[in-house]
Amino acid sequence: MIKGLFADKSLFQQLLLLFFLAFMGTLFFTAIGLAIAAGIYDISTEEAFSIISNLNSSAGRESFKIIQGFSTIGTFLVPAILGAHLLSHQPERFMGLDRFPQPAYLFIILLILAGYGLGAASDVLYRISESFPWPDDLIASFESSQQIMTEQYQALLQMANPVEFMQVFLLMAILPAVGEEALFRGTLQPLLQRYMSPHLAIWLTAFMFALLHLQYLSFLSIFVLGAVLGYLRYWTNSIWLPTLLHLVNNGAIVIAVYFLDMDYAENLSGTESLSWIESTVLIAISAVCLLIMERISRKARLD
Q1: One-character DSSP codes across 9-35
Q2: SS3 (DSSP) at 1
Q3: Integer Cα distance of 189 and 202 in angstroms
């Protein structure tokens, strides 16, 4: 039985196990994605790997979607599930899969409202990071990496029909929400909580979550979002709320681009005027919703 095989190992060995599973999962599932893309377009895997650098072409975008989708599964979801089985004798409970906070309808409503407000908080934090007096060489590096990321996202967000919308929604919203939350809040955070205070485990997990994204100007906003996701996991002892909030956060961008013709690059650049009053109100609403969820969860634990 593999359940709990590493449960009694040291924290270093357990973290090393998770890193190994994520590394091997990335390699194996990326290779699967490459092979599938090569088979669909009747080309070699080397050619499939080269065409994804040209996301302005249809073949490049479709190949990238396939490869990125498999890579996300292999990097996050599979290591999380295997890791939970190796680290705990009760993997479903360890990951927080065995419960949804009640009453479900109230939590879902509060979560949607909180997610809307967190968008304003993310915008404020991005602008703070942007206005920070970074050294010139770092600014150049930030702008270069940000431009590459923006160009990739803009290419992927070209959705001409409902089928392409569903593909992009799966790739940019569903898979990252399920996979990243499974690994970070489902496996890493409860693992760290075995050896340190819940608050330290939450913020360390959030730091690694933000670091992984390699979005330097968005680091602060991703870090805070990671902490919010971590506290939802801790308060409710469930992975479902952070997964849903992550889905709302990512999915809102895809929906806005497809249905509302939002310009992703313009929205990200922060060139639009910022209403501090509106942002303050939205952030306050988000904070109140989070506080209500914490109080309901605390009462449920006491009962």
Answers
A1: S-HHHHHHHHHHHHHHHHHHHHHHHHH
A2: coil
A3: 6
